[in-house]
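Case study 2.
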Amino acid sequence: MQNFKKLLKDKTIKHYYFMSKDIDYFATHDLKHALRVVQTCKKLATKLNLNANDIENICIAALLHDTGASNYGKKNHAERSYHIAKNYTDNEKILDAILFHSKGHNSDYGYILTLADKLDICKNRVTKLGSKQLGVRQFCFIKSLDFDIKNGVFTVNLKSNKKLDLNELNNYYFTEKIFNAIKNFADYFKLSYKTYINQNEWMFQK
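Prediction:
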């Protein structure tokens, strides 16, 4: 992970994320978010038995994936992140994963990054502005999220407090994106999948 560790110390990358902290998002796109995505990517890739080089590359993609959210906001941030990332790597799989993490993908790096990004939905992701917004405010009640891959099944487990309004959560547009990311990831890696909230099966319904 030498290349990743070098980028982690890069002051310019840190500055990109520092500039995003004052933008009025409903959910954070700061360095803390990027590092949570890194850890999820690393865990997913490890459970998929990917090699060390691929694991490091996926972690690099995760570290750089939201650098373009600074200053100009969320719109087209994946494209800006892609152009920033080109200053740090010429690996096409890394660059494509960053470029398409908001829209779609066709590689193992892309499916892993997109899923990891979408799974960062616990209370520490929600901004003060988001905590008052219909739909996204429900993430404030999610205490933890864990997952496992075993015997060909990808299982996602969320723990929430009693204030969670499942109907509001299911009607929030981003919830559909979460389930699409889970399904696409599972299909690509030929896994079945199950999702749970407080040990009760969570079935997405509009």
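The beta strands are 142-150, 153-160, 192-197, 200-201.
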